[in-house]
Amino acid sequence: MILPIVAYGDPVLRKVGKEIDADYPELTTLIANMKETMYNAHGVGLAAPQIGKAIRLFVIDATPFSEDEDLSEEDKKSLADFKHVFINAKIIEENGDEWAFNEGCLSIPDIREDVFRPEEITIEYQDENFEKHTQTLNGLAARVFQHEYDHIEGILFTDKLSTLKKRLIKKKLENISKGKINAEYRMRFPNLKRK
Predict the structure, then answer these.
(1) Mean pLDDT across the stretch 161-189?
(2) Which of 24, 28, 52, 79 has the fewest CB atoms in 10 Å of its CB?
(3) Which residues pair with 115 in a beta bridge?
């Protein structure tokens, strides 16, 4: 089932997600719905807060990036099979220089800005079977993970922008929270007056 994506301004996007266990109600259905919602919106990642659930769960399928001709062969290779469910994820180490890449977010349509992030991270997470994994990610794979990880920490990519950039997009952000946006997918807006 395709779920509405929560828009900028909704308090759930600012909550730190709670850890879950294998007894979380209807988890398999939730994961399937999140994947379907992500694909419908042409996203490469979707975190549970973006569908209104403050839990430590996100899905990523960055394989479409692997066909981008502008990427290095190393990035293409790392993204070719970067398709995972991440439960209770943690970043345990960050390495390398921070580098800029133009990011967007399904909860913040029509805004894209350069964001600086570390080039390499080591992570721990559980998969959908609650098996534990430790993995080192580089380049774009690390970036996509960090973007989704921020969601379960209550952080948005716009928080990482300079004060000037934040001022420049302030009106756009207000309009998104009021539903004054034409997204190509279902959204839920926090500041729409319900009758």
Answers:
(1) 95
(2) 28
(3) 101
pTM for the full predicted model: 0.94
105 is in an annotated binding site: yes
What are 54's two structure tokens? 């403050």
pLDDT digits (tens, 9 = 90+) for 20-36: 999 999 999 999 999 99
Homologous superfamily of the 5-188 domain (CATH): Peptide deformylase (3.90.45.10)
Give the distance between the most distant pair of CA atoms in the chain.
Answer: 53
DSSP 48-94: GGGGT--BSEEEEE-GGGGG-TTS-HHHHHHHTT-EEEEEEEEEEEE
Residue that is written with structure tokens 């926090």 in the block: 190
- Tell me if residue 194 falls in helix, strand or coil: coil
| Single-letter amino acid code for the residue at 76 | K
- Tell me if 84 is assigned to a ligand binding site: no
Q: Is 177 helix (H, G, I), strand (E, B) or coil?
A: helix
Listed residue (64, 87, 106, 83) closest to 149, CA to CA: 87
Instruction: Report how far residue 157's alpha carbon sits from residue 123's, in angstroms, rounded to the nearest whole number.
Output: 19
Residue 42 in marked binding region: no
Give the phi and the psi of residue 175 in degrees, each rounded to 5.
-65, -40
